[in-house]
Amino acid sequence: MSKPKHPRTLAETEAQAITRNIRVSPRKLNLVAGLIRNKPASQAIATLTFSKRRIAQQVKKTLESAIANAENNHQLDVDQLVVKTAEVGKSIVMRRFHARGRGRSARVEKFFSHLKIVVAERAVEPEAASTEQKAA
């Protein structure tokens, strides 16, 4: 007696990876996630590899995990993968205090984020193939 199997929410040509509680604010993480949205997976990895932002390496690990899930769990072609979505969400807020002058205190908020990356297998574009044949 176990729970019934949860239905798959993604299409058959999609795979995902989720990283939770990343120690960076959602605004900063969304800037990096915006760099890879709707790009081919290989180009997205190259962009993250040479990004100067600290959090880019963790986003790269999540993207590589999504690619590995697509290849190993769903038998998708790695060369045809595109970053379909890169969603950033709010997580917990760790609150600390900072001592101020005259016996007062100020709140320091340390934000955490969630990241969900969905990669999809791009369909072979017949238009591109037909334009190559016309040019030849």
TrEMBL record:
<comment type="function">
    <text>This protein binds specifically to 23S rRNA; its binding is stimulated by other ribosomal proteins, e.g., L4, L17, and L20. It is important during the early stages of 50S assembly. It makes multiple contacts with different domains of the 23S rRNA in the assembled 50S subunit and ribosome.</text>
</comment>
<dbReference type="InterPro" id="IPR001063">
    <property type="entry name" value="Ribosomal_uL22"/>
</dbReference>
<dbReference type="InterPro" id="IPR018260">
    <property type="entry name" value="Ribosomal_uL22_CS"/>
</dbReference>
<comment type="subunit">
    <text>Part of the 50S ribosomal subunit.</text>
</comment>
<dbReference type="GO" id="GO:0019843">
    <property type="term" value="F:rRNA binding"/>
</dbReference>
<dbReference type="InterPro" id="IPR036394">
    <property type="entry name" value="Ribosomal_uL22_sf"/>
</dbReference>
<protein>
    <recommendedName>
        <fullName>Large ribosomal subunit protein uL22</fullName>
    </recommendedName>
</protein>
<dbReference type="GO" id="GO:0006412">
    <property type="term" value="P:translation"/>
</dbReference>
<comment type="function">
    <text>The globular domain of the protein is located near the polypeptide exit tunnel on the outside of the subunit, while an extended beta-hairpin is found that lines the wall of the exit tunnel in the center of the 70S ribosome.</text>
</comment>
<dbReference type="Pfam" id="PF00237">
    <property type="entry name" value="Ribosomal_L22"/>
</dbReference>
<dbReference type="GO" id="GO:0022625">
    <property type="term" value="C:cytosolic large ribosomal subunit"/>
</dbReference>
<dbReference type="InterPro" id="IPR005727">
    <property type="entry name" value="Ribosomal_uL22_bac/chlpt-type"/>
</dbReference>
<dbReference type="InterPro" id="IPR047867">
    <property type="entry name" value="Ribosomal_uL22_bac/org-type"/>
</dbReference>
<keyword id="KW-0699">rRNA-binding</keyword>
<dbReference type="GO" id="GO:0003735">
    <property type="term" value="F:structural constituent of ribosome"/>
</dbReference>
<keyword id="KW-0694">RNA-binding</keyword>
<keyword id="KW-0687">Ribonucleoprotein</keyword>
<keyword id="KW-0689">Ribosomal protein</keyword>
<comment type="similarity">
    <text>Belongs to the universal ribosomal protein uL22 family.</text>
</comment>
